[in-house]
Amino acid sequence: VRIGVLGGGQLGRMLALAAIPLGHEVTFLEPAAEAAVAGLGRLIAAPFDDPGALADLAARADVVTYEFENVPVHAARALAARVPVHPTPEALAVSQDRLLEKRFLRELGIGTAPFIGVEDRAELARAADQLGLPIVVKTRRSGYDGKGQVIVRRWDDLEAAWQALAPAPCIAEELVAFARELSIVAVRGRDGAVACWPLAENVHRDGILRRSRAPAPRCEVALQHAAERYARAILDRLDYVGVLALELFEVDGALLANEMAPRVHNSGHWTIDGAETSQFENHVRAITGAPLGDCSALGAAAMINLIGAPPPSDTILAVPGAHLHLYGKRPRPGRKVGHVTLRAADAATLEPRLQRLEALVAP
Ligand code: AMP
Predict the structure, then answer these.
(1) Strand partners, 275
(2) Most buried among 2, 20, 107, 197, using CB within 10 Å?
């Protein structure tokens, strides 16, 4: 099958690394000059909404997917008129707007933090009053990795928060005092079959994912089932094909949804080395209409992101159970240049290895 991918970053790279052994060919559309997918398929270097480039991609693909959720929805819809696009561009539209996304989740009966849409300074003050401080104020669109959001703890901080984000339309949310952050990665096939990986426990700093552990430690079956119910509701409502990630807060043993990503997700990278079938392989299987693979974990796994300049590879590879994934990107402060997955038969064996790795890579 000829697969077209909107985006050519590390997620595209790992999709290609799963698609090639299955006999597929990949063509990427990526505007940035330095693409992590170099050498893994044909590369069309052009803006996402370049009509000629989209026509070129459509001509070279039997199915199109995306690895970046800020692809213009109109570009995905234009492609969908010529070639199947999975997941549906509707999933892009919902996840690009934090307010629409939270309303969508609520409509499906999925719990979220209380939230209010905010268009101006006066509405922000009213929202802060209604929700009660502290709150998080986020731009509705194009925020990622903690960008475009401000925590307001005191009334005196309200003006500075508005100045930092205005005049963009925003969403104000109650600041959730969560016990921990979790995520569920799920996949739906063209025949409607759904499979879910075990919950991952995620640690963020400065809004960037640092570490995931999967299966999440101390996780009751009921919590896994609740997360799977949420994921299935989203997938079915959107008639979704491919992998979806849902980021969650665990609060008093219950789950609140924070955001969804209509694509393979950083908190699912552990599945390459730590699950029977990786999120990348299952995404490829789903969009090409193949049967889905088993999502079971192979023992215990942890994933650590390499952010900025990584330590020498050999120091990482010397840790038992370590698997190194570099993205071919030049290091810059705050830039994800790779990740390491650690795998062990069980959590007790994993723990000392994780401590050793974390001493090398400050998470
Ligand atoms: P987001 O961009 O919405 O994924 O937020 C990035 C990170 O900010 C999350 O992973 C949380 O650590 C934190 N965060 C976002 N929204 C909230 C909230 N309503 N309450 C508490 N923490 C939040």
Answers:
(1) 297
(2) 197
pTM of the shown model: 0.97
CA dist., res. 139 & res. 102, Å (int):
13
Q: Which residues contact 243 (CB under 8 A, 6 or more apart)?
A: 185, 186, 187, 263, 264, 265, 268, 279, 282, 283, 286
Q: CB 290: neighbour CB atoms within 10 A?
A: 16
Q: How many CB atoms lie within 10 A of CB 59?
A: 12
Rounded Cα–Cα distance for residues 226 and 216 (Å) = 14
Contact (CB, 8 A) for 94 and 101: yes
Residues with CB under 6 A from ligand 1: 113, 136, 143, 146, 149, 173, 175-176, 181, 204, 207, 247, 258-259
Q: What is the pLDDT at residue 146?
A: 60
Give 136-175 pLDDT, tens digit per residue. Answer: 999 999 765 566 899 999 999 999 999 999 888 999 999 9
Contact 61, 38 (CB under 8 A): no
Q: Radius of gyration (Cα) for the chain, nearest Å?
A: 20
Mutate to test the pocket of ligand 1, among 203, 258, 259 (most ligand atoms within 8 A of CB): 258
Residue nearest to atom 19 of ligand 1 (CA): 175
> pLDDT tens digits for 203-217?
999 889 999 999 999
